Amino acid sequence: MNLIEALILGVLQGITEFLPISSSGHLVLGQEILGLEVELLKNFDVVVHIASLFAIFAYFRRDLIGMLKAFFNLFRGKVDKEDPYGKLIVYIVIATIPVALVGALYEDRIDAMFRGANGVAVAMILTGFIFIIGEFVYKHVHNSMPLKSKFLRSLSVCFEKTADWFKPGGYQRKGLRDVNLSTAIVIGLAQAAALIPGVSRSGATIVAGIFQGVERSTAARFSFLLAMPAIAGAGFLTVVKNGNEILNSSSAGASLSALSLGFVASFVFSFFSIWFLIQFFKRFSLNIFAVYLIVLGAWTFFS
Q1: Residue 260 class from Cβ within 10 Å (0-12 exposed, 13-18 middle, 19+ buried)?
Q2: CB–CB of 170/94 below 8 Å?
Q3: How do residues 87-118 score in pLDDT, each as one tens digit?
Q4: What is the mean pLDDT of residues 21-36?
């Protein structure tokens, strides 16, 4: 891997890690397009993902400080049941359990089955259609927008009943303070599904929040905070498994300078992507990303 290729893949990781279009899927496709050995660059993938983790730390530094204060207050015996950061820590831990279990038991098997270009393409197409369904639910169930078609009205009723099954209290607009146990569990299950290359982690968790009645920007914020233990845990496990390869850059398929450049590029563009997406979801929907995933997936699969 040369420096230009490292820069391209670092920028690609930074842009796609938080945009709901699957960073792992794009890295696989990018590596194949550039003619690089995907299996030899898993350690490069870890480095650029850790850069994305640092970007979360930088962007959400105030939230992190609030959660750290709540964490230390717990050990000091000063438990405030109304502290939103204390609840947030609990829900992040709960939502992380599914991906930790599935990752520990099946990550290698999942990666071997779906890491090829065709597997990524199929996952992207399915993810795109799930986004469209999620936006339909958000607009016509959550926001109760009228439907002209009798068929669509009937479909909306079915979605509403399904939503009530997940959330017995019914649909309501939620802020980050109102994310509850059932919301955290459903979002956690969605994050576990994103272990499949081509399924966007941020997209899966955001659309899971939308199905639960969480506003897009709030779902995105929770998704980014939830990414911290997931990315950190995945990076730690890979370092434990492949520590010698990471230290020996030649066996990792990338030089130290390439790894460093990829890290910096990923950090800068990850930070920008977080800012962009939170602002974007205040006005726009997931549909544009759905169309992109479906088109790219179809082009990759049939080309």
Answers
A1: middle
A2: no
A3: 888 899 999 999 888 887 877 777 777 667 78
A4: 71
Please state the φ and ψ torsions of residue 228, each to the nearest 5 degrees: -60, -60
219: left (phi over 0), alpha (psi -120 to 50) or beta: alpha
CA distance 205 to 199: 10
Q: What is the signed CA dihedral for 142, 221, 90, 55, rounded to 10 degrees?
A: 160
C-alpha distances out from residue 167 to 23, 141, 143, 266, Å: 30, 13, 16, 37
In sequence order, what are the beta bridge partners of 206?
A: none
Whether the Cβ atoms of residue 115 and residue 196 lie closer than 8 Å to each other: no
Q: DSSP for 84-129, please give it.
A: HHHHHHHHHHHHHHHHHHHHHHHHHHHHHHH-SHHHHHHHHHHHHH
Helix (H, G, I), strand (E, B) or coil at 212: coil
CA atoms in the 13 A half-sphere facing the CB of 145: 9
Q: For the residues of 120-136, what is the DSSP string, one character each?
A: HHHHHHHHHHHHHHHHH
Alpha carbon distance 118, 136 (integer Å)? 28
Residue with tokens 């078609």: 149
248 — pLDDT class (breaks 50, 70, 90): low
22: left (phi over 0), alpha (psi -120 to 50) or beta: left
Distance separating alpha carbons of residues 62 and 173, to the nearest angstrom:
24
Strand-pairing partners, residue 214, are: 174
Dihedral sign from CA coordinates of 229, 218, 289, 124: positive
Residue with tokens 């009798």: 150
